[in-house]
Structure formats: C-alpha cells, structure tokens
Amino acid sequence: MSEESVPPEWDVIVVGAGPVGENAADRAHKAGLTVAIVEKHLVGGECSFYACSPSKALLRPIHATRASQRVQGSEGATVDPPGVLARRDAWINRIGTSDRFDDSGQVGWLDHVGITLLRGAARLTGKLAIEVDGKPYRARRAVILATGTEPTVPPVPGLREAHPWTNREATTSRRVPDRLAVLGGGVVACELAQVYAALGSAVTVVELADGLLGRNEEFAGRAVAEALERDGVDLRLGTRAESVSRLGPSGEVTLELSDGSSLTTDELLVAVGRTPATDGLGVVEVGGQLDDAGYVRVTERMEVKGFGDDEPWLYAVGDVNGLALLTHMGKYQARAVGDLIGARAAGREPDERTTVPWAVDAGSPQVVFTDPEVAAAGLTEAEARERGLRVRVVDLPMDKAAGAGLQAEGYQGQARIVVDEDAGVLVGATFVGQDVAELVHAATVAIVSKVPLTTLWHAVPSYPTMSEIWLRLLEEYGV
Question: What is the mean pLDDT of residues 34-40?
Fold first, then answer.
C-alpha cells in the first residue's frame, strides 16, 4: 500500500459532536490520546440548537414572569413574545433572520484543545475503521458512537405528507402560529405546549394515554395537566390521531381523531418519542448488536455487544444506547468511557469506581421545565414495587417548607419520597412546584450514595429555604 493511500489515524474517533460526543472526546484527549470527532450537521448537536438550550431559553422568561406575578408588589410582569424569541435566537446562535446557525464557538473549542473535527456522515467499515462521506479513517484504540436520537414520526396516514413540526421546528420557529396541535403527552409535548400557549397560540394536545408525563409519578402529570388547562390548552386525553391531511404545502392541517371528532390547526407538532440514529451507521455490519428498537446494545462499561471475547474497541454512549435519554446521563456515560479507554491505552487496570456508569440503574434525575416544574430522581413508587422492593411513600404539600411561601403567595406543589423499608434508604423522590428544579440534586446525591435516612436527618436545611421540605418529609416518615 502506498503512503498516500494510508488512511489518517487517531487513537480515538468519536462519531457525533453533540454534548455527549464532546465529553467523550474531551475525556479521552485529557488522558493523553489523540482524538478526532465526526459531525454531519452542527457541532453542539441536538441539545445545543434544537432541544435543551432553545426550549429552556423559551421557557425561562415565562417562568420568571409568572414567578413575579405570584409575589405581592411585582405582579405587573408580562411575557413579550418578540423578546422571548430574540432571547432564544441568541442562545442558539441564529445567523440573522435565516434558518442557519453558527457553531463556530464549539468548533473553536475543539481547535483550542486539539481535537480534530471531521465534517460529514460516518459509517463503520471494519474494526477500528470508518468512512466519512466515503473517505476512510482509522482509530488505533477505539471508536465511540454518540449519534443520539431523532424525533419519531409515527405511521399515521397522511402525517408525514403534512410536513409536521418536530422539536427542531418548534424550538426554532420565528413564527407563533394562531393554532397549534401537539401529538404526545411527554416532556417535549408539555414544555412546548406551554411555550406556545404563553406566546399566544391556541394549543390543543392530543395524547393517547389518559394522563400526561406517563413516566413520572401520577400526581406530577395531573399537576401539569391542570396548569396547561389554566393556560387555555385544550387537552384531548385518551385520544389518538387516525389520519392527517394538509391543505397545500403550508395550509391548514386537519386531524381526524379516534373519538370521532376532527381538529383543524395551523401547525402540528409531533412529540411522541425518539428513534435511535443508527440507520446507515454500520453497527451490525461490523459485528455489533442493535436491539429491536434500533438502539445499540452495550455492556455495563458501554462496550458494544456482539464481539465476544475480542478486545473491546467499539463503544456507544448517550441516547444511542437507549439506557437513559437525557443529555446529562449521556455526558456521564461519556466521561466514564473516556476514562476507561485512557486507562486501557496506558496499560492500567480501569478503576471501576469511575469507569462503570452504574448510577443509570439507580434512576436518572430529570427536570420537566413546565410551570409547575417537575423534578425527580430515582424510582417512582410503581418502578420500585416492580423491582420487588418493600417501600413506603411519604407525600407532603410543598408549602410545608417555610421557604415556599416566600417564593410565591399561596404556593402550590407536592413532594414525594419513596423509601426502601428494608435498607432504610431513599430510592426515589419527586417534587412538583415553582422553582423545585434545584431540589433534585440533593435527592440524587442521597439516592446514588444510599445515605441512610438516619444520616440524612443530620443534613440540616437552611432556613427559610424550600430545602426545608427535606426535614418535613423525614419528620413525616418518622426519623
């Protein structure tokens, strides 16, 4: 083989330059390895431009306005739709009035730390070998897949032909439609329904289940449903779309629903789940395994399954492995894998304390940034019982914490802890209410660390803060 035909090599190649891929690349690079990262769209990924950042940029002015309205003396705040959209555009680095975005900041970081960026679509072609838009490259140590997921569009007759919004269009639209229909009742559906209702759209949510936020405690879904209805959102629960049609390329959209009614809207947002971005990636062709849904199957160390006793070389982190579809959990997996590959490359025995992301099994922390917020960590009551745990549940209204009344007049919310009675530790916690997002990390620490409730009782909350709810929950439990 001539010198010119030898593919460029790095120690590690990461496929996907979203936050998860960036973390994996950074950790491997800090271990002294040379790293290249592949991205076919924008460096920063879905989270930076179409999901986490823009949705929270849209929601924060709504939260701040409503928080102000709930405090005597500052009730006059109002939402300014143009200002909200302008703030969102700043967060996603929109280029002028176009639909293009500037990822030069993220690219500059890669250049600064010495990580090589390869632009294009990647495909595995063999052990430690990939192609990017047909050009071959090789890794000496490992290839890490961090390609994430894509929005699911279900096979409803006429739905694809109606060119619906997904989270991408909904989080970046410069236009607030007069009417918006939302298919789905999960996190994306609830957050964006609330955004567009606050910006002036007449919003209708169509959800097959009988409640919202089905993966959370039932009381959390009820609280968000009541809030959306107060916002004027029309909830069609226990209902599905049977067919969809659109009048012309950008005309009205009509949905025929399972209850026999029809719904006409200006835009339709599909938010019914995610699909792993593994199509065309070549995982199976090189010997790796996918599950029935298309997610990459991995070991506890994020090694792709299917290679038997061969030396591990292919890893998958973040949404693409389906373990926890949350950016922060993917970044956690990525840090562990970067350390693992670094240790193996140096000939060291990997430290299981930092190279096995076992906390995924404890239940991922999550915040739903609706008003009220839903913040949860660990297992729900139902999940804990499904695992065979003997649990006790403690529920309290959030206003039992003195700090809640300072946050808002007539504060509304609820807290729940799920306790493993045999182990005497917390296995789940859910908080619903204004500003509860900052409570969830304390719950995460307690759950992951398996802190005995008798020890947790000595973690004294500051007065008067909302964290005082921890003391009240432990008192109610009987510690």
Answer: 98
> What average pLDDT does this structure show over 233-248?
97
Phi/psi of residue 219, nearest 5 degrees: -65, -25
CATH superfamily of 160-272: FAD/NAD(P)-binding domain (3.50.50.60)
Q: Identify the CA nearest to 139 among candidates 41, 280, 286.
A: 286
pLDDT value of position 69: 96
Known binding positions: 56, 184-191, 207, 273, 319
Residues comprising the binding site for NAD(+)? Answer: 184-191, 207, 273
Which CATH fold would you assign to the domain 372-477? Enolase-like; domain 1 (3.30.390)
Residue 245: pLDDT over 50: yes
Peptide bond into 61 cis (omega under 30): no
Q: Which class is domain 3-49+93-150+276-360?
A: alpha beta
Cis before residue 155, ω within 30 degrees of 0?
A: no
Closest CA to 183 of 273, 270, 267, 246: 270
- Per the annotation, binding residues for FAD are 56, 319
Q: What average pLDDT is seen over the chain?
A: 96
